[in-house]
Amino acid sequence: MSLEDKKTVFRQFLGASMSSPNVLLVILDSVRAKNTSLHDARHETTPFLSSLAADAATQYTQARAPSQWSLPSHTSMFTGYHVPEHGVTAADAGIRSGETIFDELNEAGYETGLFSENPYLTSLETGLDSGFDTVAGASREPLFEGANPDEFKGDVGGFLQAALGSGRPARSLANGMVAKLAWDYPDLLPDRLERRLGSGTVPGSTFTDLFLDWVEGTDEPWAGCINFMDAHHPYLPNAEFDKWNDGAITAIQQSIDSMPLGFYDGSDEWWKCELLEYLYDGTIRQLDREVQRLVKALRERGDFENTLLIVTSDHGEGFGERSRLRNVRIAGHNVGETEENLHVPLVVSHPEQDEGGVVDAPATLTAIPRAVRRAVEGERDLGAFTEPPVVARTQGMLAPQQGQLSQAGIDIDPLVGESDVLYESGDDFVYKQARWNDRTLSVRSIDAATNFTDRGVGVERIQSVFDGFEDAGIRIEADQDTITEATERRLENLGYR
């Protein structure tokens, strides 16, 4: 049965079902498996998620992302198509409406909501938001209680009217002044405030609140997706979670010229990139608290027992690790097929699940739509994520970054071009085969922190698997003319420009 036929059967089933479970997909953007307590990280970053996996969920220890950056990964996670099938691998690409699992759920009567500041989900014309009744994107919390200038998108008159009628006109006007300074005169703000506001980042707690408010006013069944960006560059954990930073790392972070390009053009030293991992761990601990808040609230509402909860990441992050295939060090997630960028956490709690479980077989996030369909049909299928093939296709630097590095006289050859990766089960390990240009690589992956080159094994399988993929015909050119100045700045601050 083709994927389209499966979608049709699923819609027909939902139309006849009166007790469909809720669905919540939580994406911890940029969180790699290696730095979670789930995978024995050196810091206790995910205590709650670890306890959830032990008591009421299934942990997939060898889960892999479809790609190393947000747009192609989310496209696979939402549609069920592998990257070589959907072909959405550039910033100017998207998908036609009606192709995601949330479109299917919405058509079948689910209330659907998307909550994230990730511009590829909620700001750009990528088609990934088409299946949602409610879409809540980037809007920073105001510094003071009062009117929020971010809600007026350049409508100065509208903001002034709201500020004067808010009951807190002075504080509201102060919010407007701070927002103006953050965008146009960031050097006038204190360092920590400038980093928070000027970066355009929104704390994950904002989207937890928005989601819970939405659920409170939503008739069941509902299907929601929250993408938390706290662990994405620029790595700004709140003081409560900044547990592994003695203060000196913050000063070093502020001295970095550009992330990630500064590490590739030589303006920044790689040891600084390595130190950023301590801040990164703080942001993961911060996200763990948000997952805890979500589960606690759903349990108090009596919703958790009737909810399929999937907690994962769209890709990982590099802090100076070397790609064995490209022979280049990796900063962030702009290039590469390393395990730091592809090995991600995956925890799944099915409705009424009251015990923990562990699956060690290779698992793919491209199977999320398949897993959702089966769970909604009443099936607790732990193998939905592990059905082969488990593959990834990664890209090189985006065009704007290539141009900047070329102008700086940097050899960009190791930083461009696609890599294909295939994962298969071995004896107590996962066998990874990868190719890039005319180079190939075989790796044995034992766990999130342990993998080594297997020089005695060829990579013949990868050719046959990728030759079997066909174009799904869902890719479209995204409209670039509607990108606002605020979105452009956010993309630049996130390292995509």
From TrEMBL:
<dbReference type="InterPro" id="IPR052701">
    <property type="entry name" value="GAG_Ulvan_Degrading_Sulfatases"/>
</dbReference>
<feature type="modified residue" description="3-oxoalanine (Ser)">
    <location>
        <position position="70"/>
    </location>
</feature>
<dbReference type="Pfam" id="PF00884">
    <property type="entry name" value="Sulfatase"/>
</dbReference>
<protein>
    <submittedName>
        <fullName>Sulfatase</fullName>
    </submittedName>
</protein>
<dbReference type="InterPro" id="IPR000917">
    <property type="entry name" value="Sulfatase_N"/>
</dbReference>
<feature type="domain" description="Sulfatase N-terminal">
    <location>
        <begin position="21"/>
        <end position="362"/>
    </location>
</feature>
<dbReference type="InterPro" id="IPR017850">
    <property type="entry name" value="Alkaline_phosphatase_core_sf"/>
</dbReference>
